[in-house]
């Protein structure tokens, strides 16, 4: 980043500077793509480490602009930042092929920590349950949590499936046409 006076002060005084510094050396070579678990080219090109680094850099620029204009950081930008941070399994497989040693797993953790610190991290019950299971160390706690999640989860899934069976039957008996352009949303 070629920074001017205000920008460099903002970067020094905020955690966003550490995130920007950790991705600034990316060569955009794409060697990280084949090993990334969240990169599915047929689905979405955003979620390869290379493209997440590009998105992170652009979001840092947006944050800098919004800080300088004293508008405050837009909620949409925080949501995009969270989207990029959450599309990483933190497996660290991207580090090995990277010629400049960028570990997007560490970058993702720093992004998530910044979101938590700024109060912008969304609460997702599934994520909270998964983190509880991953952090549990007592075998009895793990056994009880697993039984509760699997038992309750499967019963809830069967209940909702039963409720929606009629809607699904109507949809499958006369599916909508699948030709032409998708509707603009």
Question: Any descriptors?
Answer:
single chain; globular; 185 residues; 0% strand; Fumarate Reductase Iron-sulfur Protein, Chain B, domain 2; mainly alpha
Strand content: under 5%
> Can you name the CATH architecture of the largest domain?
Orthogonal Bundle
Rg of Cα set? 21 Å
Number of helices: 7
Average residue pLDDT? 85
Question: What is the total tally of β strands?
Answer: 0
Low-confidence stretches: none
- Structural class by secondary-structure content: mainly alpha
**CATH topology of the largest domain, which one?**
Fumarate Reductase Iron-sulfur Protein, Chain B, domain 2
SSE pattern: HHHHHHH
Indicate the multimeric state: single chain
Provide structural commentary.
By secondary structure, the chain is mainly alpha-helical. It has 2 domains: 5-122, Fumarate Reductase Iron-sulfur Protein, Chain B, domain 2 (Orthogonal Bundle); 126-171, no CATH class. The protein has helices spanning 5-13, 16-23, 49-68, 75-86, 104-117, 125-135, 139-173.
Provide the fold topology.
Layout: H1 5-13, H2 16-23, H3 49-68, H4 75-86, H5 104-117, H6 125-135, H7 139-173
Helix pairs in contact: 1-2, 1-3, 2-3, 2-5, 3-4, 4-5
In short:
The chain has 185 residues and is mostly helical. It is 59% helix and 0% strand.
